[in-house]
Amino acid sequence: MHKLLALNRGEIAIRILRAANELGLRTVAIYSKEDRLSLHRFKADEAYQIGEDKGPVEAYMDIPGVIALAKDKGVDAIHPGYGFLAENPGLPAACDEAGITFVGPSTQILKMLGDKTAARRIAEKVRVPIVPGTEKAVSGKDEVREIAKSIGFPLMIKAAFGGGGRGMRVVNKPGELAARLEEAQREAGAAFGNDAVFLERYVRRAKHIEVQILGDRHGNIVHLHERDCTVQRRHQKVIEVAPAVGLDRAVAGLLANAAVRIAEEVGYYSAGTVEFLVDMDSGEWFFIEVNPRVQVEHTVTEEVTGVDIVRSQIQIAQGKNLHGPEINLPHDEPVPINGYALQCRVTTEDPANGFVPDYGRLLTYRSPAGFGIRLDGASAYGGAVITPYYDSLLVKVTSIGMASPTPIT
Hints:
The chain is an alpha+beta fold and 409 residues long. It contains ten helices and 22 strands.
């Protein structure tokens, strides 16, 4: 591996480029015409515009165009980051055909876990409890109506092929079902190119806990403990804490063990996250999905474990062993945790208009700073032009400390 392309934009593209640079790789950025002034294009050794005849999102979703560019420029590895094509099994398949290394799991693994209903069946197979819901994706209104009766209300409609809060709707009563279904399918189709959804019981008072895993091509899988992502808006995470505060450590251990069992069942490699709900009233916990990619909130796990997750992804793609001298994770005991970390997403949203994404020129910006502060950003500077075409994230602020934070209630 000599030259790596970051198939993304914004802060995650910069994060990938930095990790690749630290490993001595030459880096390539891509950008749409709407992103021609974006900071990530200037952080790479080489940068090229893509999708001249495509829309701002479609430009980053053009697999044939990206592969053609990669071959023309001598790229031998592609890292997808999160969002866009990160969970699309067509990308690693195209990389394999072109002789390019995909920094992520295989086409087969993405097909197994990218389909959230298939992932639920895998969890059941290894005796991990799942939230009651449908066994396969559904689409017809009559079919959905009958299934909803058996699950009961409230329930959750969720995109079967995707994540990040897109294609999700809570349905509190039967009269809301048709409208919420149409909304979820429309959003899922636009975000993931597939409008299939499934239904599951909605747990009103729950902690949203996710376990970070790493697997290599040699059959080794480790967990990097859990993080709490309960604070959300529109089903998208805004505050993340690692390790989880107020979670019984015995339950945390059970979740970590369950995550590793699911990963082992599919022969998982690269970075991934196994997500759970913990019912705050009953104490029950349930598997909900696997995200077979790096996540926005990976920074808090990195800070409390000292493990560079993005760098590890690249090293795993190079064939390195998790327990070898390069990645150097412990073999017979959990990765140690030191302190606590909290991540907050700073976004351009209008609080007077329901927090919808806002855009325009950022006239003045002052970064937070100080001991224990980490910033992951791309558009957080005076003079930056924020367009209406992409996510509203400006910068991720991660704070680190050794004392336990006050539990979130």
